[in-house]
Amino acid sequence: MKGPNERIYSRFIKLQNLQTVDIQAMYKIYSTFYQNTSRATFLSDLQHKTGAIIARTRRTKRIIGFSTLTIFDCGLHGKKIRGIFSGDTIVEPEYWGSRCLHVAFYKQILLARLRHPLTPLYWFLISKGYKTYLLLTRNFYDFYPDRNTPDSPLRDVVSAFSTQQYPQAFDPERMLLDFGANAPCLDENVAEITPQIRAQEPDIAYFEDCNPSWRKGTELPCTGEISFSALIKYCYHLSLKILRLKLEQLGTNKKNADPSTAGPKA
């Protein structure tokens, strides 16, 4: 379990450098949160990735989360575009709110942007639940699907990526990926969308409108343009979030150390 001051870190590991014990730990986390899954399916999907961002505790080196990644080229309207694809992204509940994976992911998209500065680059993700979708809406200027720009030209990018990566599963009419009745889906107790959440968070409500069958495992393909201005925005907001967390932790530590805030003693 997570200690009150336990620190975590993350780094990207290429597929060929992932240890068997690491993959086993990744699957253990994955199978906790998803139904209708198997080790064989997980391993098959992993083999198509470039590698994974692994988050660990600093003291014990225990894996507490991960995000798989791959980079690919695609054609759109006669031109080459590139996609950086986020696959499964899972963090143990005790560590929700941590920005550890975000920092490592930012490094990867920055490297991808600098290596091919003239080629349009997009983040491609497929979302079983709203938490992944919110990473897009909270960190990008231009993205799809966007409730404020339903006719965005980025729809064509999503279609191109989805058709290339998942030709058998992509439904261009619904703009969804349907992997069949036995597809892995979120556990019913994870990331549930209640009427209260829909009323308070319009982006979550829009996610469910776009993917009403998410509980059955259908996935919403999404994209965000990784322009240099988007990278600056992402870095700025990420820095603010990290600073806010550090200040909150500092305030908690000071409060715990202040004798005047201690409870009654026996």
Q: Secondary-structure blueprint of this entry?
A:
Elements: E1 8-14, H1 20-33, E2 34-35, H2 39-46, E3 51-57, E4 63-76, E5 79-91, H3 100-115, E6 121-127, H4 130-139, E7 143-144, H5 154-165, E8 170-171, E9 176-177, E10 185-186, H6 195-200, H7 202-210, E11 220-225, H8 228-257
Parallel strand pairs: 5-6
Antiparallel strand pairs: 1-3, 2-10, 3-4, 4-5, 6-11, 7-11, 8-9
Helix pairs in contact: 3-8, 4-7
In short:
39% of the residues lie in helices and 24% in strands.
Structure, described:
By secondary structure, this protein is of the alpha+beta class. It is 39% helix and 24% strand. It has a single domain, classed as Gcn5-related N-acetyltransferase (GNAT) (Aminopeptidase, 3-Layer(aba) Sandwich), CATH 3.40.630. It has eight helices and eleven strands. The protein has a seven-stranded mixed beta sheet with strand order 1-3-4-5-6-11-7, with helices on both faces. A two-stranded antiparallel sheet has the order 2-10. Strand 8 and strand 9 form a beta hairpin. It starts with 7 loop residues before the first strand and ends in a 9-residue tail after the last helix. The C terminus is likely disordered.
